[in-house]
Automatic annotation (TrEMBL), chains A, B:
Ranges of residues in domain AstE/AspA barrel-sandwich hybrid: 278-329
UniProt KW keywords: Hydrolase, Metal-binding, Zinc
A Gene Ontology molecular function term of the record: hydrolase activity, acting on ester bonds
Gene Ontology CC entries for this record: cytosol
Keyword match Transport: no
Cofactor list: Zn(2+)
Protein name: Aspartoacylase
Coiled coil feature spans: none
Ranges annotated as biased composition (Low complexity): 366-375, 391-402
Any single Pfam family the record assigns to this protein: AstE_AspA_hybrid
Organism: Nitzschia inconspicua
InterPro entries per record: AspA/AstE_fam (IPR050178), AstE_AspA_cat (IPR055438), Aste_AspA_hybrid_dom (IPR007036)
Family annotation (NCBIfam families): PRK02259.1
Region (Disordered): 352-402
Amino acid sequence: MMQQHMPSMINNVAVVGGTHGNEYTGVFCVKALERQLQQQDIQNRIRYPFHLSTVIGNPVAHIQNKRFVDTDLNRQFSYDALQKAKSISRSTSQNIMVEQQRALELNELLGPKQFHDDVDDDVPPKMDLIIDLHTTTTNMGVTIIVGQDDVLTTQCAAYVLQRCPFTTRILIHTHANQKERPHLSSIAKHAFTIEVGAVPQGVVRHDKVEEMQTALRLTLEFLQRWHDGQQEQLYNELIEHFDSGNVPCYRSAPAIREGEMSAKLQWPSSKDNPNFPLWIVHKSVQDRDFTQIQTGDPLFVDLDGTVIPYDGAYGSPIILMFINEGGYYYGSSGTGISVAVQDEFDLETGSLLSTNNRKMSMTRTNSNDNDNNNNDDIKKNGQQQQQPVETAATTTTTTSEL
Amino acid sequence: MMQQHMPSMINNVAVVGGTHGNEYTGVFCVKALERQLQQQDIQNRIRYPFHLSTVIGNPVAHIQNKRFVDTDLNRQFSYDALQKAKSISRSTSQNIMVEQQRALELNELLGPKQFHDDVDDDVPPKMDLIIDLHTTTTNMGVTIIVGQDDVLTTQCAAYVLQRCPFTTRILIHTHANQKERPHLSSIAKHAFTIEVGAVPQGVVRHDKVEEMQTALRLTLEFLQRWHDGQQEQLYNELIEHFDSGNVPCYRSAPAIREGEMSAKLQWPSSKDNPNFPLWIVHKSVQDRDFTQIQTGDPLFVDLDGTVIPYDGAYGSPIILMFINEGGYYYGSSGTGISVAVQDEFDLETGSLLSTNNRKMSMTRTNSNDNDNNNNDDIKKNGQQQQQPVETAATTTTTTSEL
């Protein structure tokens, strides 16, 4: 059965690399794509049926081989952050940060950001879809990051997941709307991120370039078929593979501390260098992204060699991801290790099963204290791990990080 | 048999981390050592019989999480570079670079650099020995880097090599004298570098911290025993292990291009970013440090995916090291992959066997064109690989890089 939604039009697509200036793999893949498009141009061949743009996200930081100059660019695209940047740019007394300025430029070039829940009220953004290319120093393999409830991008993610010849996972943003999402890709109508690791910052590895290029090629292949009106055929192919109608994915656990986007196991920083960790990730956890730890398991180690165990704050057992990500040594990027929740989304609607279950359970209990019911639902869906404690209040601030 | 040289006095030792600001492991180990010394101070215990100082090599670059601010600090300590920095610092019209300024400070603090071949003419440096802690993004494991003809540090390297429970190698500088060496450690009487990989820049891995700490602990243990007058006992222990009297090591192959410190297989850089590679290291070579390649083997790949094979410029087969080192994306650090030569040094004198053989062969042939004789000598010493073409003129510019 085909979904009821009107299929999104795909006429303008941007591929962005270097949103974090020291993530060289994305920049290399953007440059390789530019070469490919140039060659086609010389040969008068049009490969893609939509307009395909390439962009270096943060060229100033890239030249400096830094994640960012002043603050993380990929946290500057919430509606509020853009409004703030706009107001500073108009002010004669305040200095605008490099990344605030760049966010305004990119919003002009690829956006503008839609700021209503009902997108019909907004000026449509120039890009129908942004594919943002990222790397991580963690052993995450290839991870496709998309928002929930977006039929186009969740099905595209399922398409890449099914066809990639190497380990690939889907990570779902649980933000209800585009307005709050701080990521560069959120200024287009649809957001799609390809995250590849492990690769050091400021280094290009051929094997990781190939993984990113394969995921990118499959993404563009899906978009091309979607543009050509093959939505029903794509859905039928996917449902044949995901025959329950559900696609396995991960999402970030909700934050329990105010101001955080999502659950983080944090380390303290050095007094004389706020970006230098005073505790480091314990070797028993290093490189073991998407595996479980329990309360009392070694998690960090300090300068004296003292082991700091997991304190159980997010429940037990929990799944970790972005373990020892170099970018997360920075406060403005969100210090710490992310806590992941195993989930599934509905292929037809792109909605997370846990969200649906939570909504049902909230209606049923008419209370915010729905943890037990929610855990029951999760178990019914065949999940292995226990969910961390979450409340309706924290759920709205949840997102995945990249 | 004990060597004839007078044993060096070890009264002042400095441990330096962060000579490259984004090599976090060395900084973490320096901070951990500072904690250890502080604890001993509180307990009124003196663990080391010599004065042990700790230094952050490039604190400005470290705060910025960059290898360097203006230019590679670890290339600023040749006699000529220090003289140039001194002259700029006195000039009112010229701006001094951050690393030139820091080189002068460190030379004052830990040196001064000895500039005569016969060191008796010089003011003795404040430090008898500098242990400089480095990391690499390459899969080199633990590498101890010392100069040739130095009995103290070559025996210390052999001591660490023998006792480390993980893969450890020795890399020997073939500079004839201290004067030309551009490295920070060369301003002390004796230079000792511990290089650990693979670890991303700007990231601390617990397993790599442990490797660096083990190598550092063994180094300090050797120095302590040396200080305590156990030179003969140390030598006897080592000769029992290295019973031929020869210790296996590597050295850099000589440069064939003017201005280079040592043999490098280079990639071209992007026009719009001189530190961004236009070619990347082929996946068949990645992570295979200290293995051989032959003429025609895949070496690089370009933006179009075209494979660039090894052209045989340094002979065939050759051994590679520092394969895809993130620091070597910078011109001032020496762009490219290093070519290694397998060698051995004499435990009694610290002299390289190949150098001894070359000297003999040069006397014998009375000619610079001694490649064939040299290759014969190498083969006699049980080496596997062919030596690259080298002449007396290029030999003097050879060094290992870090």
